[in-house]
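Internal ticket - ligand job 308, nicotinamide-adenine-dinucleotide:
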Amino acid sequence: MKSIVTGGAGFLGSHLCDLLLENKHEVICIDNLVTGDTRNIDHIKSDKFTYLNHDITNPIYFGDKIDYIFHLASPASPIDYLDLPIQTLKVGALGTYNMLGLAIKQEARFLLASTSEVYGDPLVNPQPETYWGNVNPIGPRGVYDEAKRYAEAITMAYHRAHGIDTRIVRIFNTYGPRMRAGDGRVVPNFINQALKGEDITVYGDGDQTRSFCYVSDLIDGIYRLMMSDFVEPVNLGNPDEMSVLEFAKKVIEITNSSSKIVFEELPVDDPKVRRPDISRAMDVLGWEPKVGLGEGLGKTVEYFNSTL
Ligand SMILES: NC(=O)c1ccc[n+]([C@@H]2O[C@H](COP(=O)([O-])OP(=O)(O)OC[C@H]3O[C@@H](n4cnc5c(N)ncnc54)[C@H](O)[C@@H]3O)[C@@H](O)[C@H]2O)c1
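stdout (structure tokens):
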């Protein structure tokens, strides 16, 4: 089996490359390193692994048969997509278009890495896949949310118009080793602030909720979805919801840190609640997260400690 992973040098993509190689796939990792890093794939020594530095907003062709295209390329953290608004829109639109074209040509099955951000600032909690969302298209975060909504729409259009085999995963906050310390997402932010004894910056009053999925659970779910025959979007994430303030306290406890919590202004359109309804993933994939927050945070803290 031959698989392409776009965004394979990023946080999730690199873990997916590892799992595919374990499952005996040949893997072509395509990444332009705009937010990724070859250090995430340096450990891979397999001759079944190829890395191509390529911006997928430009077309790319392969002679050999490709079986699966896992399309993960996109800036993903708010710091990145606010800094790279046009690149984010382009990779969601042109990048997805190019990869769908490749899927037709190679007769490959195609999986889109979408996001819980398609639900925007949700008016329904937890969010089932049937909820259409509450997104501000012209706000600063709209570049990411709308790019992913467009990517879902074009994926379904290619499925309906060209009959290609597609999958859509809506990923909720996922954390683990190989996240960038400075990527601005809440998990690396808090852990690195705690490890350095710096103030932990909570936005707003910290009442907004999040739920955190450990990376190995998420990657297992993505693989199961690709191998399933289910075309509609599937939420993957951990339904254990907690407030950001509670999470900050948990990080302080796990790292045994002397850091203090300080409060800063809430970013524009920051979602107030975020929790996946994973009934569909349980029914269709027999999937649910296995790694608890204590265990996952322990491994992530160990990773960031080793990079300090
Ligand atoms: N980590 C999460 O919690 C989360 C949540 C929801 C959705 N997602 C989605 O999962 C995917 C991976 O996210 P991540 O957390 O690993 O982020 P990441 O930034 O670590 O990885 C994204 C990768 O895509 C690459 N990339 C971006 N634009 C590209 C382009 N035009 N051509 C080639 N490569 C390009 C980057 O260099 C990077 O290596 C993204 O599509 C993201 O939207 C992630």
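Auto-summary: DSSP finds nine helices and 13 strands in the chain. The chain has two domains: 2-175+213-239+275-290, 186-208+241-274+295-307.
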